[in-house]
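WARN retry 2 of 3 for item q-0093 after timeout on previous attempt; input resubmitted unchanged.
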Amino acid sequence: MAIIQLENVQKSFEQKPVLRRISMDIHEGETVALLGKSGSGKTTLLKHLNALLKPDDGRVCFQGTPIDTLKPHILRRQMGYVIQDVGLLPHLSIEENLTMPLRITGRSASQDTIIELIELVGLHEKYLNRMPHELSGGQQQRVGIARALATNPQVILMDEPFSALDNITRIQLQDDFLNLKGLAAKTIIMVTHDVFEAFKLADRIALLHDGELMQFDTPINLLTKPASNHVADFLKNDHLLLKMHQITCHQLGHHSTKTVFHALESDELKSTEKLAIMQAFLNFHS
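OK item q-0093 returned
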């Protein structure tokens, strides 16, 4: 079931097209990565989903209803928003940062509620009394996710959530992200320029180039069934794909002697075997 639909969405700034007739259905409970180079339209597209921007043409629907017919504050209560620099208020404690969205929306801001929130992202309640600057980058990003979860939204929008972190922290948080209780069953749309991050975290990837949707598909299909030469070239130059050509399935504990790439495009293996190989490769690569 599609929770978000985009139908021929177009957007220009100063007569320069930024989004070119984007159409896509995002299903309830899936994680979608908006992937592309800088200037491809990723963040602009994300901001159309919660009405921070309005399309010049086309429409965006939430649960079948055009969002331009919904009051923005009602829509945004159903969509948590996590940004790159976290955006915690520096003069407020972690508890106060988490309490704010609850009070704004008239929800309970009890101590039990706040403790439950911070535990959903794998942090101990002892952090509630600390100030943002007393937390590491990874801990701050977890608090940002907890704040986005405060109103129990159906959708979480994330704009380059891990890009400002150092490499070790980023990889650790990516691993933890897959298992955070608070994100279970949520629909997540994430902007990233990191191919590996997109392949590791997303169920489907929307590859954007110059405002055009080049392909919206599973990671495996992007690799083995590229919709165009551009899609193939975009991935060909990335270290992830190069390693897939170099590492054999046997190195990952699978009986096949094929490289990971050739195993994924082979008709000899079942889809369940391909998924297992892909997951083993991602764990190996990280």
